[in-house]
Design goal:
The protein is α/β, with parallel strands linked by helices and about 250 residues long. The protein has one domain: Undecaprenyl pyrophosphate synthetase. It is about 45% helix and about 15% strand. A six-stranded parallel beta sheet has the order 3-4-2-1-5-6, with helices on both faces. Helix 2 runs parallel beside helix 3, helix 3 runs parallel beside helix 4 and helix 5 packs across helix 6. It binds farnesyl diphosphate. The site of farnesyl diphosphate (FPP) has 19 residues, from helix 1, helix 2, strand 2 and helix 3.
Length: about 250
């Protein structure tokens, strides 16, 4: 039976996995070990989300700004993502997990894009958790790409400038067929969104937890779900309680 504290399960949870480097520094280890440990936390969190009945889990794996890190670290992060897809794809597929990738694709070089496309293609008909990997993702870039597409339609006379609506913009985003996140978690104690799902976060509940990402696990994920279930979401309206009491 679902515990009453988990009575409301978010449909979509998105996570900014922060603190790999600090986790490693604290132990006198190289940052790359922090990132490897972070992949273990990814595996555990994917399982926990599927078990909880969450429909979409979005993980901020690599931002469009992460390219500015030292080349060795960029290579480590790309290597870990490659290894994750190569090693875990078969199991994720067996577990009926569908993989989706969001982020800028056009300028990606090398084998990473074909691997991500393969993961999407292999799992496209799966019906359990949808694991959304945000790779080379930046929210402002995503919004600029969406608005550019609409501007082209206006230029071509297919759309009037007055016809642009929030819905139309949403439909051009990488997340077009993905519901907005109900809950966004950031680990490591930092309290900001860092260019992650800015449009989609309009009514998301935000949760900042002190743990570094490699320490995030099944229990912490379920703790986050409990906090979410206790929140009063109003979407700009009145709370259910206030409305029932006649305002
Ligand atoms: C933040 O830690 C984390 C990242 C920049 C990348 C997260 C990537 C992974 C967990 C591995 C690959 C992902 C998948 C989906 C397999 P940080 O380096 O910014 O830490 P710091 O702020 O403590 O320096």
């Amino acid at each position: 039976m679902v515990s009453p504290e988990l009575a409301i399960i978010p449909r979509h949870v998105a996570i900014i996995m922060d603190g790999n480097g600090r986790w490693a520094n604290k132990r006198g280890l190289p940052r790359t070990i922090g990132h490897s440990k972070g992949v273990e936390a990814v595996r555990e969190t994917v399982k926990a989300a599927a078990d909880a009945g969450v429909e979409y889990l979005t993980l901020f794996a690599f931002s469009s700004e992460n390219w500015s890190r030292p080349e060795t670290e960029v290579n480590d992060l790309l290597g870990l993502l490659r290894k994750f897809i190569r090693r875990d794809l078969a199991e994720l597929h067996r577990e009926n997990v569908r993989i989706r990738v969001i982020g800028e694709r056009e300028k990606l070089r090398g084998d990473i894009l074909p691997l991500l496309l393969e993961a999407e293609e292999t799992t496209r008909h799966n019906t359990s958790l949808t694991l959304v990997i945000a790779f080379n993702y930046g929210s402002r870039d995503e919004i600029v790409r969406a608005v550019t597409k609409l501007a082209r339609e206006v230029e071509a006379g297919k759309l009037s400038a007055d016809g642009i609506t929030a819905q139309l913009i949403g439909e051009q985003l990488d997340t077009a067929d993905i519901p907005d996140p109900d809950l966004i978690i950031r680990t490591s104690g930092e309290e900001r969104l860092s260019n992650f799902l800015l449009w989609q976060a309009a009514y998301s509940e935000l949760l900042f937890v002190p743990d570094y990402w490699p320490d995030f696990d099944r229990n912490r994920f379920f703790d986050a779900l409990k906090v979410f279930a206790s929140r009063d979401r109003r979407f700009g309206g009145l709370s259910a309680k206030t409305a029932a009491a006649g305002g």
